[in-house]
Amino acid sequence: MKNRIVIMLALSLTVVVTAGCGLDIESFIEADQSISQHAAPGSFDASDEASSEASEEEKVELKVPNVKDGELHSTVNGVEVRFEWDRVEEADGYEVFAEVKPIDSEVYQRIDEFGQKSEVFETKSTFYIAQSEGNVDYRLKVRAYKKKDGLDRYRSAWSPYVTGSSYDGLPGTPVVKAGVLKDDSKDEDSKKKEDGKKEDKKKKDKKETEKEKEVYFEWDKVEDASYYKVQVESKKKGDSVYGKVETFETEDTNYVCTAKDDTDFRVQVTAVKILKFEDEVDEAAEAVSDDEDKKETDKKDKDKEDKDKKDKDKKDKDKEENDEVDTNKTLNIVEGKPSEYATGKTY
What we know:
- There is one protein chain.
- The protein has 3 domains: 2-58; 71-165, Immunoglobulin-like, CATH 2.60.40; 180-276 and 324-345, Immunoglobulin-like (Sandwich).
- Helix content is 28%, strand content 30%.
- It contains 8 helices and 17 strands.
- The protein has helices at residues 2-19, 25-37, 46-58, 188-195, 198-202, 206-209, 283-288, 292-322, and strands spanning 71-75, 78-84, 93-102, 109-110, 121-123, 127-131, 136-147, 153-155, 162-165, 180-181, 213-218, 227-236, 244-250, 254-259, 263-276, 331-335, 342-345.
- A hairpin with a 7-residue loop joins β12 (227-236) and β13.
- The protein is elongated.
């Protein structure tokens, strides 16, 4: 640039001096243009430097992370959905955009991790763990980043969305049959015997007439169902709205509703499936498995443990039958779609 300025000044002076001598000024202008087009090799231009910096920035390209679909795991912390991706070369970390929705919803909502200050969660790890809370679906996308000067950073494009869920399929929907008054469900022989006792029936006292009436409900067994959640609603004859509601769990495929007064019942049943996941294999146990002598010792110990276990199971059998369904952190509970209401009455 300095060389060019010097040349321009020299030409200007030459033009002034030679103008009075009758020389051709246009020839000097052409010479100046020619020099401008052929600047010295070492000349400096600010626009050239900016272009060079832009080209250097364009060379920093990060690959899009290859993210795998979420997998369900059972840990001491409960049921988790784990997403993993391959490490991206030159990346300083990753930005994760994660969303969740209930199983019966179509709308995802962003997950805000503790301490998260923006729409994305930042991590230097190559995995993301979603802590399961009920039956939910997850989806997320990931991009890699590399730090620049200051707070700015280079980023890759977002990966495609991947998905995962905290359940493994749903049990079927029970079909509940209409309730049958227990007296009406007796076989023909029973009915005949009952007819022969009509006279005796008339003589029954007031207490006998106030005996509870039973309405029998049943449903077909649902494949893979661990147990059933039953909701029973009732109302007095003539009432328009069902009031009393009772909810309980059972492994049976039937239920009997009882009432002394003329009562209407309606029953709804939901199949529930328990998913149990194996804990991680103990590495020490794997190493020992190659030792044949140790295997023999383990077999003897196992036989003794099995015998002790059988004795203990026998003592605890009655207690275990009455225990509630185990819903500890090694289990995942999945509920199917509730059945249609089935109705029955005591009159």
